[in-house]
Amino acid sequence: MNMLSRPGTRVHSVLLLCLWTGLVCLTTVSFTHAAAPRELKPATYTFSPGPEFQFEFQERLIEAVPGDILELKAGTYHLHSGLNLVTDNVTIRGAGQDKTILSFKNQRDGSFGLLASGDNLVLENFAVEDTSHNAIKVLGAENVTFRGVRTEWTDGPKTTNGAYGLYPVQCRNVLIENCIAIGAADAGIYVGQSTDVVVRGSRAEANVAGIEIENTINADVYDNVVTNNTGGLLVFDLPGLPQKNGRHVRVFRNHIFKNNLANFAPKGNMVASVPAGSGVLIMATDEVEVFENRIEDNRSFSVSVVSFLIYGKKLKDPHYDPFPEQVYIYDNTIKGGGTDPDGELGLLLKSIVGTPLPAIVYDGVTAPSQQKGEQATKTRSLTLANNGDVGFLNIDFSNLTPANIATGKYRPSGDLAPFEGTQESLQPVKLKPHGAPNLSQNTTLNVYYDAPRKLSELKLFKGNGADQQPAAGVIPYDLITTLFTDYTSKHRFIRLPPGKQISYQQAGVLEFPVGTMLIKTFAYPKDMRDSQAGERLLETRVEFLEPTGWYGYSYIWNEAQTDAELSLGGGEVEVDWIHADGQPRSTRHLVPNANQCLSCHSHHDKYVPIGPTAANLNRMFDYAHGAENQLAYLKRNDLIKDCPEPDAIERLPAFADAHSGNVNERVRAYLSVNCGHCHSPGGNARTTGLDLRYLQQDPAKIGVWKTPVAAGRGSGGRSYDIVPGAPEKSILMHRLQSNDLAARMPNIGNRIVHQEAVELIRQWISEMEATNDEAAQ
């Protein structure tokens, strides 16, 4: 790697974990570290394939300055873990989509290739191949460009392929141009819950869905080639998501042909219901224009316009509009389709109307307001014009019942007249130029550059810290219900700045003063049956609050257990122990890189602590002077202000203690602590609409009868997150039990199934009351 030096830098040595072998080595490498004071400026960095690329490139992503350009020379780069980027105004540029290849064929960690959240992001001229789940996901960013990028699963269409190729979600001002997406088990090019989007000049082939625009507002999709997918171009709206009721989507000048590939999506995903041979499919989205496209030889449906109700899924979202309205289809060239319909609906229509099916199929289901006559003239569901001499079919889905078919009362209509006409065209989408680099973001980078290289420099412990005895002013604490990390034990501490106090908060993490440090050391007891046998310290994570916000990184303990070394780029530690059942066990403990920490410690893309809430701290602790309630200890020592007496504060149930609450309360506490930081309105999994915080009481939001979003093979072939009374049909159970990178949850720090949690959550779902119609699902 050619690393350009910045002004005022000096060279340091760091412990390099040999990530490519999975072993902890004592090799040292040099890297530049800025000396304070400094003026950090954007630069261009060039990388070549090699065994050190994973570590070096991820460290550069962490230390990126707004305006940096990261150039990848031609060649194949072999990676075993996903990459994370959070800095704004970064460009990652390869030598060409067939020349620079990031291969994840031997991926061990992370369910993605690249996960980014920085604004003004440019990704161009490289390929991402064979990721365990999504290839490139960009979350919550503004001004995102994919140019000349290829994503592909190279072994051909398989259910085990990742779900999405290019995957911007909850983004604004997105451009996807001259890209290629091949082999995704959900959608090759997927734009979800985003605003102001252009997809042009790209090719989608051999995916379940070629291009999918979902719950998105203002999108232009044009001049693309879409072929050999199960479904070619889909414009969808799904319930239960934060951004609902997408609209204003223009689909034009695309060539959509021979999308006849057998559906290979994992069962339970929405796209698993898409019939092979679907050209253009519009579902439940308003204000959609489809014009000047060539739509050819799609064997089931050339163009179909349907409501969400046609899929027979339960609908628990009162704010979701399941009916398509103001869909305008005109000036298209459509031919050769409908010759061999697929799927339950296709086969049924074939038996009723024969083949070929008409070119444009509409389910005929309208919103209740439209069924009142006069309103229907104001808001038409569907308008057709100038599509040539093609057939039309209103299948009248509401009356498509076995009884009506048997008695001859069901009569689908081919009458085009009620739908002919014109309507006002939608305005083109206008993207804004990317903003200039904001070098004020260097605050984050300066924090990393200034980080002590050894844990001992922080003076948190007595002696060398091997026995985790806190130094003066460092407060030990514990939680009632803890985050499970592969059966590790954890030592937790708080260091407050002198004279400062914590501010009590009833909900959420306590409010700590600037200068606070939260410290957590991960360890394995050598023998879980014998507390006197000692333990192996693995890493110490330090979170600290600066005036500009929270930051965090990890220190990895050496084999001698005499100190720990800073590792911004993360790593692995091989460890073995005797488990509580007397059996020997071993694992590779994952030390997250500094950007991976944000995967959990993120609320609206800002770093936040996730453990010390008043409810989870409201317990006894064995201090040096004896046992005392932790909140009472803080009050007695004048370390917290405005805090009620502990008896007046809610106490979170203890997952492992049957006397602390009923099964529902204990499971909800476990899910809140282990999952709720991501699955919440501000968390990194907010796009799913699943909310697992303890305070959430809406059954649909905690997953009951909730359809999955972006689950891929994480659905386990199941249709709902939680099916009351049926844990074996619930996606939640599958994800907690799975060792599949694309399915297991949480997806960081979770290489071993938490069997005790699995059993209690199985009991919880089994005891949920199911109505008669639900039990039949």
Automatic annotation (TrEMBL):
Q: Which residues form the Right handed beta helix domain?
A: 115-236
Give the top-rank taxon of the lineage listed in the UniProt record for this protein: Bacteria
What NCBIfam families does this protein's entry cite? beta_helix_1, chp_HNE_0200
Which Gene3D superfamilies does the UniProt record give? Single-stranded right-handed beta-helix, Pectin lyase-like
The entry's protein name is Right handed beta helix domain-containing protein
Lineage from the top down?
Answer: Bacteria, Pseudomonadati, Planctomycetota, Planctomycetia, Planctomycetales
